[in-house]
Amino acid sequence: xxxxxxVLQVRGLTMGYGDRVxxxxxxxxxxxxxxxxxxxxxxxxxxxxxxHLLGLQEPVAGEVRYGGEDFTRAPPEDRExxxxxxxxxxxxxxxxxxxxxxxxxxxxxxxxxxxPPPAIRAVVRLKLSLVxxxxxxxxxxxxxxxxxxxxxxxxxxxxxxPELLFIDEPSASxxxxxxxxxxxxxxxxxxxxxxxxxxxTHDVATILGVGTRALFLDxxxxxxxxxxxxxxxxEHGPAAVRAFFAGGAxxx
Length: 252
Hints:
The protein is of the alpha/beta class. It has a domain at about 95-160. Helices cover about 40% and strands about 25% of the residues. It has nine helices and ten strands. The chain has helices at about 45-55, 75-85, 100-110, 115-130, 145-155, 175-195, 205-210, 230-235, 240-250, and strands at about 5-15, 20-30, 35-40, 60-65, 70, 85-90, 165-170, 195-200, 215-220, 225-230. Strands 6-7-8-3-9-10 form a six-stranded mixed sheet, with helices on both faces. The longest helix has 18 residues, at about 175-195. The mean pLDDT is about 90.
């Protein structure tokens, strides 16, 4: 694989709050078509990293690059252009409760495209159908189960056919069978749409079930201590990584 195959690059990234460093000197790249997992215990810096990747928090040092373009130092208009290549599924789905599912999914299409209303409605129906919510266009978010809300949030995240999909704790608040169905859906969408995914999670079943490669953040060491295929890290990774997998498997 060459740099041209990279959808996302992180170079020398140091993250912190005030004088407190969370993670230092972080380097990794995400290749086209991967499901790249950022894993670690609670408080290890996973969500902080996601905020940096989306430009919601500025690094102490280092840079984030989208397909070779410097995102960290880009002016606001270029950041906005680069972010249009990405979709985000937030941990709680983050649906607007005052909007129907169709209106939620239509929102990015209305904001960032010049499609006429009939075309937007057709795209909305397609995206909801892809996540198994065909016929639910007129439902309100509060009328749905947690798993259905996550799928609706996913439909909105893929509304603009993103090249890169960021997903924060997809299994949070879901029972195990529902979480595994969501994992399977993520893989089907990756294959159908050709989307590259970056998933932030501590769920061992998700990591092993969908991850192509994984990065382990160690909050105590303030750095990443392992990267590679999840199954290999579970068997041959550093002691802290093996303990993480063993503890997650026991909890499941």
